[in-house]
Here is the input.
Amino acid sequence: MSTPVIEVDKLNLKYGEFHAVKDLSFEVRPGELYALLGTNGAGKTSALETVEGHRQATSGTVRVFGHDPGDRKAVRPRMGIMLQESGFSPDLTVRESVNLIGQLTARQDDTGRVLDVVGLTRKAGTLVSQLSGGEKRRLDFATAVYGTPELIFLDEPTTGLDIQSRDSLWESVDRLRENGSTIVLTTHYLEEAQQRADRIGLMHQGVLRREGTVGELTRTLPSHIRFAAGPQPLPLASTERDGVTVIETFQLQKDLHVLLGWAQDHGVELRDLSAGPTSLDDVFRAIEA
Amino acid sequence: MFAIARSELIQIFRNRLVLVTSLVMPVAVSAFFIYRHEAFATIGSLGYIAAIVMFTVGAFGLYTTAVTTLASRRQNLFLKRLRSTAAGDRTILAGLLLPVTVLSVVQIGVILTVFGVVSGRPGDIPLLAAAAVATIAMMVGLALATAGLTNSPEHAQVTTLPISIGVIAIASWVGISGTEELTLLKRLLPGGAATEMVVDAWNGSASLILLAPTLAWVVVAVALAARLFRWEPRR
Here is the structure.
């Protein structure tokens, strides 16, 4: 197996009395899209900012491309960072902002091309103070992908974006991944992580509680069959909530077959029938419970 | 560094408020002093006017503008953005402070040249220049330290007052009353020795040892800045 792009070993972060990150260990492999998810205040931004080199670890080790992330000259030319909050000067134009930050990354690229990728070409001469929230997010993304870095951090990249901008951002990310870029993502939109992440780390109260592929995470919880309540008695154990009958099962195919056979034999219509694996949302709820 | 400096220069000229406080105000005050130099020379000396011009530019054009700029760049997370690139901390600070420093040096140079033409050539130009450079270094260092205690550009209007008013008061006190009494105190106060050096250098010749207290203040200011300076807003 190839050497990891990011290695985090027993990372601890404390702010005074507050223990924000506890014994966090994980790896991100080349070409992977790794999503670090968590509840509010789970410590994911603290963890991410330590990996990015913005924060000092209280204890533990963090390596990015085998280097200390604080060694900016060694590490930063190979990575792009999209911060959670924009930090641009209101008195500079979009083009000037991308030019400046692009130059400072020490990578080569064409500012016009980058603006085109994020759909800000028409806003090139506009002052940052006159951009909408979504446009600022796209500007942030532009500076992160300038020069197509090997490693890209996306901290809540789609917050405040409309659906078109969100789709086009993910298209750009797909193209970066075709070129071999590694992506580290945090997001509150769990379906984005569910659809795109190769692996997910789930943090809760400073601790990495679960890690694995989407399948590995959702398989630990039962699948669900749902339909409008009414028909009785059912051939399977079920619960009823707000007029919906729910059957939890670890053998979705078999139990669905049993249920459908029973409905067919008894001439019962199962209205609003749906069946599917657990979503990440459920994995989250289970962690908080 | 020059990429950051260039973008700072653009921002200074786009932001009229900064332009007025950093460029127009000190020039206007200096022009007044030069225009009425005969009256002010009777209170102190021609050298006193040179010192006041230097500290007006240093306190308002340089120090206050630098603190306001740093607080503003931190508040809107621009500092954090710059630190997300391959640029090192010193490069970032140097780039941010270079334009306002160069503008102040040019201002002092031009104003004192005009003053020299109007009132007569100063006694010792190299020593005058040395005092100016040391003063500018001290004001930059104090700006970095003060920026650490300043949360926002609005807050800077308060936090910069003690030092900006203080150094001008010291320059006036030393420039008008001389250093024959309370010599040690006057020389040790920030700007005191620099004022004495400028006054003496303009009126005739000065002692190079007078540079020492100012350079000591540079060291103190940089040490304070290293402890106090913050890159991200307090949460």
About this structure: The two ends of chain B are 29 Å apart (CA to CA).
